[in-house]
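User: Hand in any protein.

Assistant:
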Amino acid sequence: MSNFRLARISLLLAAIGLNALPALSHAQDAKPAAGAPAAAPADTVRPEIFKLLDPTAVKASMDAKNYADVQSRIDQAAATPALTPYETFVINRLRVALASTTNNAAMAMPALEAVIESGKLDKKSQGDFIQALANYHYNAKDYANAIKWFTRYQTETGDVASVRPYIIRAYYFNNDFARAKQELMTDLAAKQQAGQAPTLEELQLLANTGSKSKDPATYLIAMENLVRYYPSDDYWTDLLGRVQGKAGYSDRFALDVLRLQFKAVSSMPERDYSDMAEIALANAFPTEAKKALDAGFAKGLLGTGANAAKHKKLRDQANKAAADDAKSIASGEAAANKSKDGTGLINLGYAYVTMDQFDKGIELIQKGIAKGGLKRPEDAKLRLGYSLAMAGKKDEAIKVLETVQGGEGVSDLARYWIFWLNRPATAAAAPVAAAAAK
């Protein structure tokens, strides 16, 4: 999962002005009653406190990085008897300023909370201080309190969106995977309803939530959306590998899965090239087998190592069968037309597709579907859909694939082909979603 961290608190506080020294006004010298401290009117500080916290002197020490002097001034002021609420507010404001400069979270957090609860901030500043305190708790991995203060920020400011990602991540890091999933799925549905793409980080977090909570269905949803919006070789390989383990998935789609993978990724694992070739040969599609092997050899994945001889033998077999098929394929059309059902026409048509004779092949597949008598008509529509996709007929392919229904994996594959057809023009490579969340 990509990094999604809050900025350093000192930078955040500087950006919103929380490390600025508080402006002070002080009461004029007055003679207190014997033994009593000098009184201070509301929102002013007494002269003795002003002397300690004089902004000019404090700023000079801060600029000189004489933080010990600033701390000493704060401590002396805090020890003054009978502090007024405003004097306490000023002292805590100065603590926030010092803590933000020196990265002292232990000082900053109670001071921020005291300032927030003082009732002396304007609405804008109140929100800024609440957000800063929430950020401190988040960075301290105190996720329960981070959620509390981020939620309060939403309530008091009405700004729900800006801190929502942090709240969801706090649920995740606090091991409340059920709540993290609920919130992520809500946001995913809302964005898709509005025609907006979810962020890469949201989908990665959803994948990690599914992985951490051993919830394969949630993980699969995340991977489907990752290949839809942010396709990469890693995501496609992960998705197509996992979907075959989905309950009720039929192994008759093994070759169909490899066909999609062959188109969707820049390079498959060595075994997938050889498996695709073997299954294609077994299904009488030798040209498809030859293409898979040629690609594997061209990438240097086949023909080397312990399986080099096996790969060469398989390639020789595919080359011979493909050459023979090219010579004899036309003779099979008459027999396919005489068949009681359209299966022969569909298989013959796809053989032409593998030879890049797309128009001829697609026409035969369509004739086979129209002829009927098919054991699995949805499988036939799936094949027609991806044949159109391979031919570069995007709109026609999507129109067919959208009609594919049924279980055992057929409708999943139809959707995935649509994802591939609608892939972003530039798909940046992204790390596999199962990586640990940062």
Remarks:
- Residues 1-17, 28-33, 428-438 have pLDDT under 50 and may be disordered.
- The CA atoms of residues 41 and 80 lie 16 Å apart.
- The two ends are 6 Å apart (CA to CA).
- DSSP finds 23 helices and no strands in the chain.
